[in-house]
Amino acid sequence: MIEDKNQQRTQLSDLGEFGLIDHLTKNFKLKKGSTIKGIGDDAAVLNFNKKNIVVTTDLLVEGVHFDLSYVPLKHLGYKSVIVNLSDVYAMNANATQITVSIAVSNRFPLEALEELYSGIEMAAKIYDIDVVGGDTTSSNTGLLISITAIGEVETKKVVYRNGAKPNDLLVVSGDLGAAYMGLQILEREKEVYKVNPNNQPDLEPYNYIIERQLKPEARKDIVKLLNDLEVCPTSMIDISDGLSSEIIHICKQSKVGCDLYEEKIPLDPQVISTCEEFNIDSTTVALSGGEDYELLFTISQEDYPKIKANPNLSVIGYIKEEKEGLHLVTRAETKIPIKAQGWKNFNG
Amino acid sequence: MIEDKNQQRTQLSDLGEFGLIDHLTKNFKLKKGSTIKGIGDDAAVLNFNKKNIVVTTDLLVEGVHFDLSYVPLKHLGYKSVIVNLSDVYAMNANATQITVSIAVSNRFPLEALEELYSGIEMAAKIYDIDVVGGDTTSSNTGLLISITAIGEVETKKVVYRNGAKPNDLLVVSGDLGAAYMGLQILEREKEVYKVNPNNQPDLEPYNYIIERQLKPEARKDIVKLLNDLEVCPTSMIDISDGLSSEIIHICKQSKVGCDLYEEKIPLDPQVISTCEEFNIDSTTVALSGGEDYELLFTISQEDYPKIKANPNLSVIGYIKEEKEGLHLVTRAETKIPIKAQGWKNFNG
């Protein structure tokens, strides 16, 4: 679908290990004051001068987390960084550094890795982080990307998942379900392409949801916004597995219940129309779709005036006592228990 | 060879994602003062109170870095941690935390992952580090382990690869080549086993070199020793790819040359006898074998009296001016240039 059969191919075995790492990272500039030494020694050296640091790591596996038949490598590199930064922001921290390790089979030429790293570099530039380390090795099959992200936060400002209190408001940034519906479109077009490779699909009506799938953003802006508004969330998590899964994490760790209002869940019009086209319930998509990389957090009711006018934030429910349980309040005003989804990855 | 066909098998899909992570890490206790929050949130939270921190990461891939037909999973878990800690110690730092991510196919039952994590836990306990994060996902084939290690070091004590000066002494800890020869024994026994599965090999004569391959140690003790002796190396690196490759790194980054004395290279008697058995030159094995996880460093000549009596340390050469180049001085007193080895991983 997007592969250019005529592209230049340089075999990875033509380069030594150090040639490859040097080559891929030569454009990566160090800008953060906390980075003392980047790539090129046994380890990177950092200094955060008494601030707390946060560390998070994620693995992305070809065939499990991404399908290279419709994911451009540059987008993949960008997204790999974003999913990690999102976890840093969910601690109310500023992302400062990442390490990037890849395992890659011989079917990838150097030019493919250059594409991947150009996406990583773009994300590093836009989110103002340094790439300070990594490892590059061969794999027997496919591509695997492992990223560790580091951030800094003042000791008093760290936000965990376990601080939600009864009567707090449940708030979400942006809108939900778009990345999942974008994936449905890409999967459908892949099947069409298999049958008729000359078919040129019109993806214009789906541009927003496809971008949310292929090139998501992490909500660095929301961390800054909350700081500017002097709102410190009582708990926070990023939405990677779907709204219901993240609500369960917050409620379980905070030992509270909640009411989530179906009518308050923010949905983009493209999500609604595409759900209608696929005959899928949009609320189900928002609850279980995942990969939104929005922030879900709770705030004290007294902070409500500070956020109520903001178009980036939606109040979607209330925290309740633990004994009241977790419920979705539907448009028909019935209450349905919120349940955990199974882990799809190991069922395949 | 070592697989127990009757072992209990619990399918990974029987557990949820969170059940699996909780299960595998439930025995992991946090002990470091610098760990504020470990596994269980979007990110770990650490505080190093003005000290420099070092960060390093490594990927280990089944079929590239290890062969499960003769590597017990517990040993693999242990070794995966060791190879990362070795990089931390090579910065003259103390290792404090790791994150552990694994991608694993459905052919691994839960009990296999428990074995792997028991080795990780053992290494964490022995080296006094906290496991503070990680990711667990499925892979289409095999097992992949990605570990990021974090350590702390006083700002003035960080040792890089680029500080070696002409006339410095080149020093190595322990002995070299054993892990490579251990691998040769394991590979040979694997072939014997294929032909006759009932054959019980006598591995006793090779116990040291097999242990060096399957259960290497990182030289935390050497970092402490040098500190106690008040010796601060001018440069340091750990030996993962073989002595010649590491010497080249130090000389290239320090812009110096060196003379390495063949007769001074420390070899265990089992390495010498096994090299004779395989008809391989032991110096070649020490130069190119790799996986020793010893520390290679340079010190000022004035520090020589402090280390000369120590049985853990061998002076193996001298740093020279860059224009004099890098040479091995053989037992016959001829000089041979030290050359880089190719990167085997991408040639397969």
From TrEMBL, chains A, B:
<keyword id="KW-0460">Magnesium</keyword>
<feature type="binding site">
    <location>
        <position position="42"/>
    </location>
    <ligand>
        <name>Mg(2+) 4</name>
    </ligand>
</feature>
<feature type="domain" description="PurM-like N-terminal">
    <location>
        <begin position="40"/>
        <end position="153"/>
    </location>
</feature>
<feature type="binding site">
    <location>
        <position position="240"/>
    </location>
    <ligand>
        <name>ATP</name>
    </ligand>
</feature>
<keyword id="KW-0418">Kinase</keyword>
<comment type="pathway">
    <text>Cofactor biosynthesis; thiamine diphosphate biosynthesis; thiamine diphosphate from thiamine phosphate: step 1/1.</text>
</comment>
<feature type="binding site">
    <location>
        <position position="65"/>
    </location>
    <ligand>
        <name>substrate</name>
    </ligand>
</feature>
<dbReference type="InterPro" id="IPR036676">
    <property type="entry name" value="PurM-like_C_sf"/>
</dbReference>
<feature type="binding site">
    <location>
        <position position="291"/>
    </location>
    <ligand>
        <name>substrate</name>
    </ligand>
</feature>
<feature type="binding site">
    <location>
        <position position="56"/>
    </location>
    <ligand>
        <name>Mg(2+) 4</name>
    </ligand>
</feature>
<feature type="binding site">
    <location>
        <begin position="134"/>
        <end position="135"/>
    </location>
    <ligand>
        <name>ATP</name>
    </ligand>
</feature>
<keyword id="KW-0547">Nucleotide-binding</keyword>
<dbReference type="GO" id="GO:0016301">
    <property type="term" value="F:kinase activity"/>
</dbReference>
<comment type="similarity">
    <text>Belongs to the thiamine-monophosphate kinase family.</text>
</comment>
<feature type="binding site">
    <location>
        <position position="42"/>
    </location>
    <ligand>
        <name>Mg(2+) 3</name>
    </ligand>
</feature>
<dbReference type="InterPro" id="IPR006283">
    <property type="entry name" value="ThiL-like"/>
</dbReference>
<feature type="binding site">
    <location>
        <position position="117"/>
    </location>
    <ligand>
        <name>ATP</name>
    </ligand>
</feature>
<dbReference type="InterPro" id="IPR016188">
    <property type="entry name" value="PurM-like_N"/>
</dbReference>
<keyword id="KW-0067">ATP-binding</keyword>
<feature type="binding site">
    <location>
        <position position="241"/>
    </location>
    <ligand>
        <name>Mg(2+) 5</name>
    </ligand>
</feature>
<feature type="binding site">
    <location>
        <position position="87"/>
    </location>
    <ligand>
        <name>Mg(2+) 4</name>
    </ligand>
</feature>
<protein>
    <recommendedName>
        <fullName>Thiamine-monophosphate kinase</fullName>
        <ecNumber>2.7.4.16</ecNumber>
    </recommendedName>
</protein>
<dbReference type="Pfam" id="PF00586">
    <property type="entry name" value="AIRS"/>
</dbReference>
<feature type="binding site">
    <location>
        <position position="57"/>
    </location>
    <ligand>
        <name>Mg(2+) 1</name>
    </ligand>
</feature>
<feature type="binding site">
    <location>
        <position position="87"/>
    </location>
    <ligand>
        <name>Mg(2+) 3</name>
    </ligand>
</feature>
<feature type="binding site">
    <location>
        <position position="343"/>
    </location>
    <ligand>
        <name>substrate</name>
    </ligand>
</feature>
<comment type="function">
    <text>Catalyzes the ATP-dependent phosphorylation of thiamine-monophosphate (TMP) to form thiamine-pyrophosphate (TPP), the active form of vitamin B1.</text>
</comment>
<keyword id="KW-0808">Transferase</keyword>
<feature type="binding site">
    <location>
        <position position="135"/>
    </location>
    <ligand>
        <name>Mg(2+) 1</name>
    </ligand>
</feature>
<feature type="binding site">
    <location>
        <position position="58"/>
    </location>
    <ligand>
        <name>Mg(2+) 2</name>
    </ligand>
</feature>
<feature type="binding site">
    <location>
        <position position="87"/>
    </location>
    <ligand>
        <name>Mg(2+) 2</name>
    </ligand>
</feature>
<keyword id="KW-0479">Metal-binding</keyword>
<dbReference type="InterPro" id="IPR036921">
    <property type="entry name" value="PurM-like_N_sf"/>
</dbReference>
<feature type="binding site">
    <location>
        <position position="238"/>
    </location>
    <ligand>
        <name>Mg(2+) 3</name>
    </ligand>
</feature>
<keyword id="KW-0784">Thiamine biosynthesis</keyword>
<feature type="binding site">
    <location>
        <position position="161"/>
    </location>
    <ligand>
        <name>ATP</name>
    </ligand>
</feature>
<feature type="binding site">
    <location>
        <position position="58"/>
    </location>
    <ligand>
        <name>Mg(2+) 1</name>
    </ligand>
</feature>
